[in-house]
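Exercise: predict the fold of this chain.
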Amino acid sequence: MKPAWIIGFSGHRNLLHPDVVRQALHTALSATKATIEAAGGQAHLYVSAAYGADLLSIEVAQSLGMSVHILLPKPVILDEQGQVSFIEGFASDFIDANGQPMLREWQQAHDFIRKAESGDDGWTYRLVSGTQVEPECYYDAGIQIMEIADLFLTVWDRQAARGLGGTAEMVEQADKLLLPLQCIDPETGAIETQRNERFAPQKDEGQKLMQGLQLDPTLTSEQQFDALDDRANLHSQRFRNAVVKGIWLHALATITAAVAALLHGTSLAAAQMVASLALFEWVLVVIAWMKMKRMSRGQTHTNWMRSRFAVELMRAMFGSHFLIDPLNPPIARHKKEWVRFAITAGLRIASERKVHKSWQAERDAYVAARLDDPRTGQIPHFLQKQAAAAPIFDRLSRVQKAASSFAVIFVFGAFLYKGSHALHGSITGAEIHIPKGLANFGVVFFFKFLPIALPLIAGVAAALRSAKDCGRRKYRYLELATRLRISREQLIHLKTESSCRRCVGIIEEILLDELIEWHLSEKQNGAH
């Protein structure tokens, strides 16, 4: 779980001095790798597998012990005899000027592709998303590599692109994105860096976030998931308990103050009672303050949010990593600070789970584990949470509604009672007569105590409803379960791999929306 840093690559196919380029690539990659590792990260190469500079970069990265992630613009096509076709597909690019297959280069590329497909040494393989028709597929491949790269490395002769998707166009795009860039001259091997100050692993927000998660590199991804889940549950319980106790302590302190304000008399006993109540109120307020201070000092709320967010991202990866590219996590379109964690965890999970099945089997496993399973499935999860939250929400809503309604009556009654006495006193000049005994208790209770207590009860009910998050769970979770059921029914009947992957992406976006919504709602409660 060391933070993954992605070095994107693009370069020319035809090289006059391959040994010069190889040496320059070794210099550039080894220096960048050392910078990343010094910051506690790990360097990865993201590249296609065209002949020329692409293959040289993979060769050098492999010699440096870097994981390589290959993106092909077109699939490898087999002919009727089961042999690789050089007429169509990716292998058709390996044709020399005489129209003959470049067998040595193709064998090297094919070996790299098979290693990536098998997942050895943390390598991964994918096809470009979108069109796989040339020349658009070459441009799309370069752009998709660049979108996830932290630094872009090129072998470029400073000439205009020979066609769509050429290295010159990738350099131009990198300039527009202000991406850190390293350009190798294919003639001399000279390395020019641009915007190198933007490549700062030590200061990276995503890397700092991962350090805050206190990840243990000795644990497997499943063990790390369990550790984060336990930590999130612990912080959640502490925070929720502290908030609820704080609400009750402040409410009790307010009631105590109200009782003290209602006491009359000039005797020593009355004064001692008022002083005791004031002391009790102060103790309650101090306890509530200390509880929240302890939570703030220990960053309980922030740690809970951070751990829970990481857990839910990993839960999504466990269920969908065969169907969603770990280098293109959905979170990348929403929260940039979480991209490094998502990519790192996704690649770690992919490297540990290398048994590949058919896409139909992966789809069925995804539906069973991610959506339907009573323990891990999201549909049962949302329905169970909704069923538990609904009665709590209803009870607290009834209390708030009743207290608010009665508060209107009794506060206005107190106004009439006090106003009539004030008016009577101003007209007659007589002192206000305070009833004795039971009558006095009734006056105090109905016209002094309830006007204070009822608004307080309404506020406490509303605060508890917010602290327990039961309103959002009652309504939002039922809606989410319904949307997931509809998507599930569509998914299980799809007949192509591309439509299946697209549908899984939609489902994960639905789940991610809920996670981000929760994250934002908790930020409103004071977390960071």
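Check your answer against the key: The chain has 15 helices and seven strands.
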